[in-house]
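Query structure, 459 tokens:
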């Protein structure tokens, strides 16, 4: 009886915290973002121009798009479609209980895991869909002002959650949306892309079985001393993502690997070895690689000397974004305009969506409006990500980024480096690709502990 009473108390506490978090994080989509008409906007390697003869600013809040001068409205629409097509992963509540805890929400502590998920999702989108892909339904997301969008979304997500409990395939509130989708005369390529779009999102579902879902990431984090409810730094999340991809068993994911730079150094031979390693099927084919580089952009505060380099990185189409943010708040940086970074914010509490159900609603996984933040407000601790499909792509990227590092570095040493050879050639312990009963080697554990406790500020 005592145990039952304790469980009830935990449930009541969880309900109270969910209500509090809903109120606390509901403001995220209510603020408007303004973009200059006279400066180009970059989003993960793509450039958009909103320029007109008149100076001033325009808002990317959905309600204002129809008021923009016709001369630039097409470009704004293309930018908005591109931005909305990126996968948005936020706080969720009422998902299956996390193993070893009473938590059914990550509100207040899971933001860096969410931004890490967004970065990995962009890498997988490049791999399966390509950079040119945009979601056909992107502009169908409610274009009313953000406050009403929030209320509208809550209703839709509530319906989605109720449908997931009853295993209803199509929530009634979204029936018209799905009818419109079914009526679309898709060719084979569009249908293929939509299958992968849904599949990628499903890999990040909030359930224990999802390959890159919160539950799995927390399990891998335990190997580095982290538990559910802890703060996670961007460097620790980089290693967790590597391990999650390494352990994924979906055949579709066998052609992708993740490499994490060691002490701000990318060892080219180690990367190529990962790309050329045999797949589980025994097939000898090169893998695409997502390279993650944990770095620090200054001491206690971000050094403005690194601004041009960060802008250069976000101008590359093979960049998959940056896990960063402000102190105690992690954001997914995906672009910039002038000296401001464009980001997606995970600090918005949404209801659990069961991605195992056919035709689960997609709208809550796509952000309707971008946010901007001055570069000087950025926390110096971050992780930069790149995607390379082939060994040749990696070699080309390493040359291009090296030139960028040298030209932007005012100091004797660049932010990070690419060097030839293996890490073991430089007296670093080589980490095994797989260790039975232990997902992280002793060397990795020491490195992760150092990242968590010393020079990296936790987000």
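Result returned for the query:
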């Amino acid at each position: 009886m005592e145990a039952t009473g304790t469980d009830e108390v935990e449930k009541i506490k969880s309900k109270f915290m969910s209500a509090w978090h809903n109120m606390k994080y509901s403001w995220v989509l209510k603020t408007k973002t303004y973009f200059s008409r006279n400066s180009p906007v970059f989003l993960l390697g793509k450039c958009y121009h909103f320029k007109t003869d008149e100076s001033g600013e325009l808002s990317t809040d959905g309600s204002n798009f129809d008021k923009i001068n016709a001369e630039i409205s097409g470009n704004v629409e293309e930018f908005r479609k591109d931005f909305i097509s990126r996968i948005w992963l936020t706080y969720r509540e009422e998902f299956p209980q996390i193993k070893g805890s009473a938590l059914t929400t990550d509100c207040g502590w899971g933001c860096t895991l969410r931004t890490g998920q967004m970065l990995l999702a962009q890498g997988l989108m490049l791999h399966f869909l390509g950079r040119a892909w945009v979601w056909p339904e992107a502009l169908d997301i409610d274009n009313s002002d953000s406050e009403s969008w929030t209320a509208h979304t809550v209703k839709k997500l509530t319906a989605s959650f109720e449908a997931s409990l009853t295993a209803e395939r199509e929530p009634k509130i979204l029936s018209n949306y799905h009818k419109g989708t079914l009526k679309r005369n898709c060719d084979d390529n569009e249908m293929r892309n939509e299958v992968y779009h849904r599949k990628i999102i499903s890999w990040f579902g909030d359930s224990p079985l999802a390959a890159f879902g919160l539950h799995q990431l927390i399990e891998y984090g335990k190997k580095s001393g982290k538990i559910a409810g802890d703060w996670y730094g961007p460097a620790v999340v980089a290693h967790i993502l590597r391990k999650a991809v390494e352990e994924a068993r979906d055949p579709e994911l066998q052609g992708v690997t993740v490499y994490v730079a060691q002490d701000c150094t990318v060892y080219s031979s180690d990367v190529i070895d990962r790309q050329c390693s045999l797949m589980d099927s025994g097939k000898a084919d090169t893998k695409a690689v997502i390279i993650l580089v944990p770095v620090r952009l200054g001491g206690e505060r971000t050094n403005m000397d690194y601004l041009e380099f960060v802008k250069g990185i976000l101008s590359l189409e093979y960049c998959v974004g940056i896990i960063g943010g402000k102190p105690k708040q992690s954001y997914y940086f995906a672009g910039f305009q002038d000296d401001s970074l464009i980001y997606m914010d995970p600090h918005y509490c949404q209801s659990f969506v069961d991605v195992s159900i056919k035709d689960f609603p997609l709208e809550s996984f796509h952000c309707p409006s971008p946010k901007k933040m001055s570069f000087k407000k950025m926390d110096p601790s971050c992780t930069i990500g790149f995607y390379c499909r082939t060994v040749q792509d990696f070699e080309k990227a390493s040359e291009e980024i090296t030139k960028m590092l040298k030209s932007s570095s005012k100091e004797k040493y660049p932010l990070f480096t690419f060097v030839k050879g293996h890490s073991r050639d430089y007296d670093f312990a080589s980490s095994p690709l797989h260790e039975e009963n232990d997902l992280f080697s002793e060397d990795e554990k020491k490195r992760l502990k150092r990242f968590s406790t010393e020079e990296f500020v936790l987000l």
